[in-house]
Amino acid sequence: MLDRRLQILLDEERYRRVATEAAARGTSVASVVREAIDRTFPVPTARRRAAVRELLDADDMTVPEVDGLRAELEELRGRRA
Length: 81
Description:
By secondary structure, this protein is mostly helical.
């Protein structure tokens, strides 16, 4: 959830680069800025390890056979059309 507002001033060249990237990706300037922050200042290792541990400790789940999974994906794709 996004709950902090940040106002920054950029020179025209920086804004043009960010806006061009956002347009190429079909996303917002804000999204590109957030991604740049995440790449520059990654989540601390301890938090990442805790997240991995939580995933590894999760209960096993059944995974359908490949044909069943394909059918499920095709059904979901059909709903979006």
